[in-house]
Amino acid sequence: MSGGSYYVPASSKWPILAGLAVGLFMIGTGILLVFDTGLVLVPIGVVAIVAVMALWFRDVIKESRSGLYDDQMDRSFRWGMAWFIFSEVMFFLAFFGALFYVRVFALPWLDGEGAKGVSALLWPDFAASWPLMSPPDSNVAGPKEVVNPWQLPLVNTLFLVTSSITLTLSHEALKEGHRDTTRNCLILTLVLGVLFVCVQGFEYYEAYHHLGITLQAGIYGSTFFLLTGFHGAHVTIGAIILGVMLWRIQKGHFSEHNHFGFEAAAWYWHFVDVVWIGLFIFVYVF
Fewer CB within 10 Å of terminal CB in the chain, N or C? Predict the structure, then answer.
């Protein structure tokens, strides 16, 4: 909108509906975890969240395409996306922090080292090591083997790093007005993202059925699936977002100077890529 005025959106029902959808999903998840029932609420909640997001973003796209947004609104979107990614950084830092705490503090304490070495009285025969193949509690079976980082994880690392490069090329092509190159590089990025998810699925199958790495395989199994599982979910969400960007490119949306929707998707994808580098180093290699 020209003239330096600030666009104020009309009253919207989507925030309250989004809150209700997320609440339904969380209630279903809580019931499932505590009472092992109520599974039907979880998919209903997921469908409700996706539907609200799709309809809400549809309205935002319509407003943007109608020329209602000005530079101030663009800055608002950028700050909003920046804070969202910051919240995601904190989300993953919490899990990396848990991994750090276990490896640097908890395990040495159980082995009699450090300020809380008295913890060794719980399991006097325990010897600290990582990956923890033999949990101190004999009722918990540790993994048989660990995932070789130089096989499937390395392949997935190459997939994601390459996808960030192709997405950057797609973004640069969009800024230069080369829409065919934008589309082709974005398609390649999507293919690499789907390959990543497929390879991780195969890795999970091998881990569960051949390596003994499960959620019940002690602290190593739980942290492994917590970190890699949430990351895989983010890759899947990112691929869906990029799929929407591809659809919008096909529809003729975006211009050389007005394409923040595409740029925000690229920010998110690069963030997911950086998180994977951290996972590869601290979960698989060291």
Answer: C
Residue 227 belongs to domain spanning: 74-285
Tokens of 118: 């008295």
The answer to whether 106 and 223 are in contact (CB under 8 A) is no
* 202, 241: one domain: yes
pLDDT for position 257: 86
Give the model's confidence band at 224: pLDDT under 50 very low, under 70 low, under 90 confident, else very high. very high
Has residue 3 been placed in a domain?
no
The Cβ of residue 99 has, within 10 Å, a number of other Cβ atoms equal to 19
Please state the length of the chain.
286
Q: How many domains does the chain have?
A: 2
Q: Are 150 and 281 in contact (CB under 8 A)?
A: no
Q: Is residue 1 part of a domain?
A: no
pLDDT for 250-272, tens place per residue? 999 998 888 999 999 999 999 99
pLDDT for 5 equals 63
What is the rounded CA–CA span in Å between residue 201 and residue 216? 18
Across 99-118, average pLDDT: 90
Report yes or no: 168 and 266 within 8 Å, Cβ to Cβ: yes
End-to-end CA distance of the chain: 52
Q: Is 0.70 surpassed by the pTM of this model?
A: yes
Q: Which stretch of DSSP H or E encloses residue 156?
A: helix 152-175
Buried-exposed string 193-223: b where 16+ CB fall within 10 A, e elsewhere: bbbbbebbeebbebbeeebbbbeebbbbbeb
